[in-house]
Every structure is written in structure tokens, then in C-alpha cells.
Design a protein that fits this description.
The complex is a heterotrimer of chains A (143), B (553) and C (334). Chain A has 143 residues and is an alpha/beta fold. Chain A contains five helices and five strands; from the N terminus they run βαβαβαβαβα. Chain A has a single domain, classed as 3-Layer(aba) Sandwich (Rossmann fold). In chain A, β4, α4 and β5 form a beta-alpha-beta unit. In chain A, α1 crosses α5 and α2 packs across α3. The longest helix of chain A has 22 residues. A five-stranded parallel β-sheet of chain B has the order 1-10-9-8-7. Chain B has a five-stranded parallel β-sheet with strand order 2-3-4-5-6, covered by helices on one side. In chain B, 49% of the residues lie in helices and 7% in strands. The chains are: A alpha/beta (143), B alpha/beta (553), C alpha/beta (334).
Chain lengths: 143, 553, 334
């Protein structure tokens, strides 16, 4: 049965060694307040640990946060690890201290959206909701 | 109003209150940055203080007015710009650049692998080598970092915590290699592990053994490196993680008191190590609240150390502190505005009586700072020092009703937190349960929501917004060659060193972990034997176990 | 939908060791997706091999830490483990923060462990149904042990853990909630009582109080005497004792007792699911009762002056007599 009011499940992941989790935790709280079920990976995770958690949790969305400058090596690795688990269909987003040109590059390369510093957290939630609504509707038609 | 003698008596306070009732007020939140409601006016009734008891004189108990009698007339604060990126060689060049431009102390930023105790060639390090600081995996890297810089003369600060005792081992060994006696080394190592669990999250092992390494270090340094500041008790990261000013103040001082308790419990005389404790605070945008925070910190610590811990040496009572302007206050939008923000924050630190200062560069929300941005940040301090004439008078804001009232308020808030922490069984049980982490998180979320609703304004983000198609300033990028270069250097090191002495030093560390003998001694020896950071850290992880991150969401 | 799913039926993939099938089937169970009952029909013959353990207790008692330690213990015996960690949903927004994984982070990369976080969501009984379904999925996949962890001291949580063969209730000294738990009937669902954080002051006292309470309140209920075990999950001590007590409860049940207990629970599940479906069918927005919806029909009767009891009686009789129109969806689900 098509179910377009489905609850969105999100994994917020912190790949790499950087311990700055203020943004990740804030976004997790805000998404919860927007009615999503949010799983937080905890700190210092490897790309494979994040992808494995995303697979076990069958999340619709994976949001990554990095402030250490390692995004260009770690973000694509998470994407690859997800793909190797048959999870290339998740909505993959990211945020952190990421220069505009890197954002553009990642968005051309498997990432649905990158959110830079100063992004309004409600905007992030609304963007995800809109995107997932489209996906759930398409899924409903398929099934 | 006339009394019986016919003389007019004017109650100006009453008149003012009446005037305020009808006065127009803007649609705005009249709160501090930490969301504390402010009165429109402060009078003597709001600022209860005894000048002798609560303020004293500069250089005297309770040091509310500063730790030196002459303050900046005697000596300006140390202008210490935190720097580090890429390889040891690249950072060495930046150090020399800063010294050439009038900087008076060095401050080292390490990359995440180093901060977490991994070698540059560890699989955990992939993509992070040299990114946010310099990669130091061995004593040899440390020697390159200080090549051509006289370690006996320069004062060095190293921002590292989990592996701090190992890194100090590298530093001492590198100095000895330069022919410098450790007894003359001057500097500070952050080494504040408690706030790592609470806010910054770069830890190496579980809290109890980490605290033991710190007391090892305090006793080792008291004997062998007497001018070294063994801990810089840091509120900076607590604040940057989202705490309020009061939380930063309270948690930092609570951590400080915990270190003192540990030192005393390890059998040291409080006056033997307390004078080497220093502090590190954030200076955020709320000008007055920040100044009051610095003043309250000095007063609280002096009272605790003298009256609760029985310290007799006035140096043990003093909060000497480094300040960094608030990284979180910088915006990616209209980045040049960050120069202005940083200037105000720096001014608050100076009026609050800081001993040293780092001013952030305008481009730090986008990447590591460029040389130009770093230079402007340094010049900001120099302008305050040389042009504004604020340095001539000690604690110039003392006696202001508003400043004294806020200083009192912050002290009271801190005391309430100390009580709460005690009721939770102390600092370590509280952080294992995630108490601090949760308090900080809740404050961070609250601020974020206030900002997004427009109750707290940020120029360029939620007001005076401009359409920007991308950053208009140059970015500093770390070249990818650093990782490869570090791999090669480590491969060469592993090739040339004597495996037998590496093995025996690692074994000795393992034994010291178990028998309780001083680990610092072992780390210095291991540094000379060219054991790497990752090898030593691995022994510690195995022997001491790792910290389990509490779930606070 | 993912293309892979079209290649082989999901139940088949589940039984062939595809972990993504575990994940997706649990999602279907949580969402009350109509595809779940069909898939279950295919893998149901494989259900019944796993041992099921429920762990509950008040917030802050250290349940996830204990579960993590128990998983570690089972892994030393080379047993594969599925974990279901249930956290409450916000009653206001419907959202949830599911943080139990953090406590079990080191297990994520273990190929013999599978952790799934579940939010309690809001539907009545929905959580209990979804949890049983999720256990069945993990069971059919082939996990040797399935652990269900849920916070709290309410009826919904009892329903969830009582689906397990053995229920462990975790308490700790110092928390007012532990006393509340003793009062609120958590003792009655416990097969094993654990006093966690046994290094804290008051632990001995709590254990003694619990022992006494069991003696007074549970005496004569059956032959199994609920043991009180002390441990410190945080420091990893006493875990063997907890595992031993769980093992003893299993031997006490024996093969026959286990089978009987499970059958009783299945009856309860059928009753729960049937009630849920009947409820959905009767109160659906389609015309059902004399050409109108049940809700509208009830409104009419109320306006006509009937009492709520009379209307309810008529409705029950109409259902029993099969007078309500059949709902196509019901047939499909059955």
C-alpha cells in the first residue's frame, strides 16, 4: 500500500577523527523535532562503520558532518561503502567547513546536497522532507 | 515634591522608572549572548560588593582586578597565534614567519591523527594528515618543527591533550638533541583531558588512567622542567561546543579543582604544582559578559585555592590565562566582517586582563587561514596594544555597577554548577554519564534556534544578508603531498631505527602502566629510541582501555 | 523500489543471509506495511530457533551498556546476535533520537552482530507487534540470540519485553526511578533482576530490598525464584553472573516449558493483531454499516437517543453476525 506519510529515518554520521559534534548533534535534534527518527553514529567512525550502521538501520537519509578538512577523502569513501552494501539509493547529504567548489564537486558525485556553515537547520529539515516526499511517492507508484 | 521645610527633594530614580514605563522600546531581546535577561540600567543597589573583600588590588587576593600589580604597564600580553598545518617543515616556516612579524610566542596546532594518537600512516589517519594542524608522529618530526628555532629561548604552547604526555616527551627529547637543558624550557601544553571528554572529544584512554598520566606529568615537570605549564585548563572548547559563558566558567574551574584534588591525592603539596596550572578561555561577542567572566574566574579560583585547598603560595591562587577569540562567532558569509568581530572580542580579553591572546583570522570558517588573514589578525592585537591607549590602566571597568553585578551573577551561577557536579559524584562520574555534554548540547541547540528565529542576530546570516555566489577571498589548501611525504618519512624512520631498543622501550612503558611508576620518564626515553606516537599510544590503549562515549541525545 | 528486490523474493534473500533483507523487513514491520505478512508467511517455518532475551528498566539504569556487555559475552561463545534497541518517540513531534548504537559502537563492524534501533512511535500495540515481527525476522535470518532492549516502566514496555523467553529488569542505586519501578510492577515481569553500578553506594541495600520484595510478593507464583544479580556493566564486572542467571532461567523452563510459553505468547500476538485489524476495519473511512461509516452510524444513533452501551452492543453483535461489509484490504492482509 502506498504510504506517503511514512516516517523518515536518518543516520547522522561523523566520519574521521574530528571531534566537533556541535553541528551534528544540533541537526540531529532539529530533525527529530521535525518528526524524523534520527540515529546518531557517535564520534570517530570509519566510513565502513557508518555505511554498515546505515544498512542495518535501513535509513532513508545519511547526513555526514566533517569540520576537519578531510571531506574530500572521507565523504566519497562513505558513498562507496554504502554502494558496496547495496545502499546507493539513500539520500546522501553533508555539512561542515566545506569550500563552495568542493560542495559542487561532491554534488556532482553522488551527494544530493551539501549544507555550508550558517545554513538554517529548519531549511535542512524542510529540504529533506521535500526530497523524501518525492521519493516515497515514486516508491508508492512502483509498488 | 516638597517636604515640610519647603525644600524640593527629587527622587530621580522614581522619575526614571516613570519615564521608562512610557518609553518606547525596540522589538528585541534584551539578553546576554548566554540568554540572561538584562536590566535597562544598573545602579549601586544592583552591584553589592565590598571593595576590599571582592575586588582587592591588582596583584592581590582575590585578584578580581588582575594578577599583576602593574598589569599591561609592566608587560603587554603575549601575542600568540595558534599555527600548524601540513608537515613539520611547512609549520616550521610559518613559525619563522610569525616570529619575524613580531609574534612573541609559538603555539602549535596538531592534526587530528596526532591529537588522537595515530601515526600519519595509520589507516585511521587517511585524508586527515596535516589538515587542521601539523602532523607529528615522532621525535624526529618534532626536531624538524623546531629546526632553526632556539628551543631554550622561545616559549612554546602545544595544543594537545590525549597524547600530551607523549608529545611533551618528544619535545623534551628534541630539546636535548638541540643541546638544550630541559630545566630552561618554557611553555605550556594543554593537557586538559577532562574537557576533551566533555567538549572537544580528542581522547586517548579512559578518564582515570588519563588523570594518572597527568599527575605523572605534574610531578615529573616539577622536578625536571620547572618552567613548564603542565596544564592549560581550557574553557575554550566547552564554549565553542555551545555552552553559555557561565557554563564555560563553571566547568573549566570545576575541572581545574579536579586536577588539584588529583595532584594532592597523589601526594604532592598543592603549592608544588598549582602555580604551574594555567587557564585558557574563549572571548565571545558579548563584550561585558566576557570581561565579567574573566574577572569572576580570577576571584573564584583565588577563593577556592586559598580557602578550600589551603594553598599558601599566592601564585597558586592566580588564574593566569590565555584567550582565543570565538571561532564560532565567525561567519562564512561576508567573511571580512570577521575582522571586526575578532577586534571586539580581543578588546574584551584585554580589558578582562588576559596574559596571552590568539586572534582568529577572517577566513577560518572556510579553511585554514591564509598568511594575509593571519597577519591582519595579529595586527588587530597590535592596534589594541599600540593605538587604543586601553593598556595604561589596570581593570578599568571595576566599580561599574553593571560590570560588578554581572561578575557577581556569573560567580553565583558557577557556584550552583559546582554544587550540582558534586551531587552527581564529581567531575569524572558526571562526564561518564554525559552530564556536561548534555548541558552544552542543550545550550547550543537553544542558541541555534534563537538565531534561526531571529531573536539573536548575526550580521550577514539572519540580517543584512547579501546575495553571495561564493567566497570572495582566497583559500588556503593543504596539498595532498603531505600525507605521502609523512608516509615516506615514517617508512624511513622504521627502517633506520634500532628495533630492539624500540621493543624494549615499549615494554618498559607497558610495565610502568602496570606498576605505577612515572610514565613521563618512559616517554622521554621512548622518544630518544624513536618509538612513534602511534606505537606508544597503542600500548596505552591496550593497558588502559578506551573512553566510552555516553549517549546524550 | 530497489531493483535487487525484484530479483528474488525478500523472504528468500532473508533466509539466504542477506542482511539488507533483515533491515528492510524490519522497516516493513515498523511501518505496518502490507507486504510484511506475505513475506512472513514464507519465512515463518524458519522462526523459532533463536533464544529471545528482553532487557528493560528505568532510564539511566545502564541497559544499553549491559546489553553491549552481554553481546560481548555471547560473542566469546561464537554466538551470532541480533539486537533491537527501542527508544521512545516524542509525543509532540513523532520524531525520535535513537542513540543506543553509540553504546554498542564497537559491535557495528562485527559481521555476526546486527543492531537495529526502533522508535516506539505512537500507535497502541503497534510497537509490541512490530517488535515481535522484528524478532521473527532476526530469528529466521539465523541469529542465535535476539536481544530486545527497551526503556521505561510502562505497559507498552512490558508488552514489548514480555515477548521474550527471558526478561531481565535492570535497576541501579540512587535513581528514584528504581524505587518507582519496584512499585509499578516491573518486578512481576522480571525473570532476572540486575542491580547495575554495584560499586555505587546503596547497591547492596537495593539488592537486599529487591530480594525481600520478591520473597514477599512473588512467593508461591511458581517454582522459579527471580534471582537478584549484581554487576557493573560500565566496568565490565559481574556480566558472567548475569549471563549465568539467564542460562539458569532457560534450563528451568526446559524445552517443553519454553514451547508452552512461546505458544501462549503467540496466542497473545494473534489476539493483538486481530484486534488491531478489526479495529482498523471497523473504523475505516469507508461505508461499512448500513451504507455509512461506523463513526457516522454511531453519531446517528447517539442523536437518536441511544446510550453508548446500547450502540456498542449493537456494533459487537453486527460484527459477530458478519453484518459489516467485508473490507478488501483485510482479505489481502489475511
Amino acid at each position: 500500500m502506498p504510504n506517503t506519510t511514512r516516517i523518515i529515518r536518518v543516520l547522522i554520521g561523523k566520519p574521521g577523527l574530528d571531534g566537533h559534534d556541535r553541528g551534528a548533534k544540533t541537526v540531529a535534534s532539529v530533525l527529530r523535532d521535525h518528526g524524523m527518527e534520527v540515529i546518531y553514529s557517535g564520534l570517530h567512525k570509519t566510513p565502513s562503520e557508518i555505511a554498515e550502521a546505515a544498512a542495518q538501520e535501513d535509513v532513508d537519509v545519511v547526513g555526514l558532518s566533517i569540520l576537519s578538512g578531510a571531506h574530500m577523502s572521507l565523504f566519497p569513501r562513505v558513498r562507496d561503502e554504502l554502494a558496496s552494501r547495496g545502499k546507493e539509493d539513500v539520500l546522501l547529504v553533508g555539512g561542515g567547513i566545506i569550500p563552495a567548489e568542493d560542495m559542487a564537486e561532491l554534488e556532482n558525485d553522488g551527494f544530493a546536497k551539501l549544507f555550508g556553515p550558517g545554513t538554517n537547520t529548519d531549511d535542512i529539515a524542510e529540504w529533506i522532507k521535500t526530497e523524501m516526499k518525492k521519493r516515497f511517492e515514486a516508491e508508492g507508484e512502483d509498488a | 515634591m516638597t517636604d515640610t521645610t519647603g525644600v524640593q527633594r527629587v527622587d530621580s530614580g522614581e522619575i526614571w522608572r516613570k519615564a521608562m514605563e512610557g518609553a518606547r522600546t525596540r522589538e528585541a531581546a534584551f539578553t546576554t549572548l548566554s540568554d540572561v535577561e538584562l536590566q535597562p540600567l544598573y545602579t549601586s543597589k544592583d552591584a553589592q560588593f565590598d571593595e576590599e573583600r571582592d575586588l582587592g588590588y591588582p596583584g592581590q587576593f582575590p585578584f578580581t582586578r588582575g594578577v599583576h600589580p602593574s598589569m599591561y604597564r609592566g608587560r603587554l600580553w603575549t601575542m600568540r597565534q595558534f599555527a600548524g598545518f601540513g608537515s613539520a617543515k611547512q609549520t616550521n616556516e610559518r613559525f619563522k614567519f610569525l616570529l619575524a612579524h613580531g609574534q612573541t610566542g609559538l603555539s602549535t596546532a596538531f592534526d587530528f591523527p596526532t591529537l588522537m594518537g595515530y601515526d600519519s600512516d595509520d589507516e585511521h589517519s587517511l585524508g586527515e594528515v596535516g589538515q587542521v594542524g601539523v602532523a607529528i608522529s615522532s621525535m624526529d618530526d618534532m626536531s624538524v618543527l623546531f629546526d632553526g628555532i632556539p628551543m631554550g629561548e622561545v616559549s612554546t604552547s602545544m595544543t594537545i591533550n590525549g597524547p600530551a604526555p607523549i608529545m611533551l616527551g618528544f619535545y623534551i627529547a628534541a630539546a636535548q638533541k638541540q643541546g638544550v637543558d630541559p630545566k630552561v624550557l618554557r611553555g605550556t601544553i594543554q593537557n586538559d583531558i577532562l574537557k576533551e571528554y566533555q567538549a572537544q572529544h580528542a581522547w586517548l584512554v579512559a578518564p582515570e588512567p588519563a588523570l594518572r598520566m597527568i599527575t605523572d606529568m605534574m610531578s615529573y615537570c616539577a622536578e625536571h622542567v620547572p618552567h613548564w605549564n603542565t596544564i592549560s585548563i581550557s574553557g575554550y572548547h566547552i564554549r565553542e561546543a555551545g555552552s553559555t559563558a557561565a557554563q564555560e566558567l563553571a566547568f573549566t574551574l570545576a575541572n581545574g579543582m579536579e586536577y588539584v584534588r588529583r595532584g594532592v591525592a597523589a601526594g604532592m603539596d598543592v603549592d608544588s604544582f598549582a602555580p604551574r596550572l594555567s587557564f585558557f578561555f574563549d572571548s565571545h561577542l558579548d563584550f561585558f559578559e566576557e570581561i565579567c567572566k574573566f574577572r569572576a574566574a580570577r576571584r573564584i579560583w583565588a577563593r577556592k585555592m586559598r580557602d578550600e585547598f589551603g594553598a599558601k603560595d599566592p601564585k597558586s591562587w592566580m588564574v593566569r590565562f590565555h584567550t582565543q577569540t570565538a571561532g564560532v562567532s565567525l561567519t562564512a558569509q561576508q567573511p571580512e566582517n570577521n575582522i571586526v568581530r575578532t577586534a571586539f572580542e580581543a578588546m574584551a580579553a584585554v580589558l578582562g586582563g588576559t596574559q596571552s591572546l590568539h586572534t582568529n583570522s577572517m577566513d577560518e570558517t572556510l579553511s585554514l587561514p591564509t598568511e594575509k588573514a593571519v597577519k591582519i589578525a595579529l595586527r588587530t592585537q597590535q592596534i589594541i596594544a599600540e593605538e587604543t591607549e586601553v593598556t595604561h590602566v589596570a581593570d578599568p571597568l571595576a566599580g561599574s555597577y553593571f560590570v560588578e553585578a554581572q561578575t557577581n551573577r556569573l560567580e553565583a551561577e558557577a557556584e550552583a554548577y559546582f554544587k550540582e557536579i558534586e551531587e552527581r559524584g564529581g567531575v569524572v562520574p558526571s562526564l561518564q554519564e554525559g552530564y556536561f555534554q548534555k548541558e552544552i548540547h542543550l545550550s547550543a541547540v537553544k542558541y541555534q534556534r534563537q538565531m534561526e528565529r531571529g531573536e539573536k542576530k548575526v550580521v550577514g546570516v539572519n540580517c543584512y544578508v547579501e546575495d553571495e555566489s561564493g567566497p570572495s577571498i582566497d583559500l588556503h589548501r593543504i596539498d595532498k603531498g603531505v600525507e605521502k611525504e609523512q608516509h615516506d618519512r615514517l617508512a624511513a624512520l622504521r627502517e633506520r631505527r634500532d628495533d630492539a631498543s624500540v621493543e624494549s622501550e615499549l615494554k618498559a612503558i607497558r610495565a610502568a602502566c602496570r606498576d605505577g611508576s612515572n610514565l613521563l620518564e618512559r616517554f622521554v626515553a621512548a622518544a630518544h629510541a624513536e618509538c612513534t606516537l602511534g606505537e606508544i599510544a597503542q600500548v596505552l590503549r591496550e593497558e588502559f582501555g578506551q573512553f566510552k562515549e555516553p549517549n546524550i541525545l | 523500489m530497489i531493483v535487487a528486490e525484484k530479483k528474488a523474493p525478500i523472504a528468500e534473500r532473508l533466509m539466504n543471509g542477506d542482511r539488507n533483507a533483515v533491515a528492510r523487513l524490519i522497516t516493513w514491520a515498523e511501518n505496518g506495511d502490507g507486504r510484511f505478512p506475505k513475506a512472513l508467511a514464507q519465512f515463518y517455518p524458519q522462526v523459532g530457533k533463536a533464544r529471545r532475551l528482553g532487557v528493560t528498566g528505568p532510564p539511566g539504569a545502564g541497559k544499553s551498556t549491559l546489553v553491549n556487555e552481554l553481546v560481548g559475552h555471547l560473542r566469546t561463545q561464537d554466538r551470532s546476535v541480533g539486537v533491537l534497541a527501542v527508544d521512545p518517540s516524542s509525543p509532540f513531534t513523532g520524531g525520535a533520537l535513537l542513540g543506543d548504537r553509540i553504546r554498542m559502537e564497537s559491535r557495528t563492524s562485527d559481521p555476526k552482530v546486527f543492531i537495529r534501533s526502533m522508535a516506539s512511535r505512537s500507535s497502541h500495540g503497534g510497537l509490541a507487534r512490530a517488535t515481535i515481527d522484528a524478532c521473527d525476522v532476526m530469528d529466521a535470518f539465523g541469529f542465535d540470540d535476539v536481544l530486545v532492549e527497551t526503556v521505561g516502566v510502562g505497559q507498552a514496555e512490558y508488552d514489548v519485553v514480555s515477548a521474550a523467553d527471558t526478561v531481565v529488569v535492570v535497576l541501579c542505586p540512587g535513581a528514584g526511578d528504581s524505587i518507582q519501578a519496584m512499585k509499578s510492577g516491573l518486578l512481576e515481569v522480571a525473570d532476572v533482576l540486575v542491580v547495575n553500578k554495584d560499586d555505587m553506594p546503596g547497591a547492596q541495600r537495593l539488592a537486599a530490598d529487591l530480594g525481600e520484595a520478591i520473597h514477599i510478593r512473588l512467593a508461591g507464583r511458581g517454582k522459579w525464584i527471580t534471582p537478584v544479580v549484581m554487576c557493573s556493566a560500565g566496568r565490565g564486572t559481574g556480566i558472567e553472573d548475569v549471563a549465568k542467571a539467564i542460562e539458569e532461567h532457560r534450563s528451568f523452563l526446559g524445552e517443553m516449558g519454553l514451547k508452552q510459553a512461546r505458544n501462549t505468547k503467540r496466542v497473545g500476538q494473534v489476539r493483538m493483531v486481530a484486534s488491531e485489524w478489526v479495529d482498523q476495519a471497523v473504523w475505516s473511512p469507508e461505508p461499512r454499516w448500513n451504507g455509512t461509516t461506523c463513526a457516522a452510524h454511531v453519531q446517528q444513533e447517539l442523536s437518536a437517543g441511544s446510550t453508548p452501551y446500547d450502540i456498542a452492543r449493537n456494533l459487537r453483535d453486527a460484527i459477530m453476525a458478519g453484518k459489516l461489509q467485508d473490507q478488501p484490504e483485510l482479505r489481502e492482509q489475511a
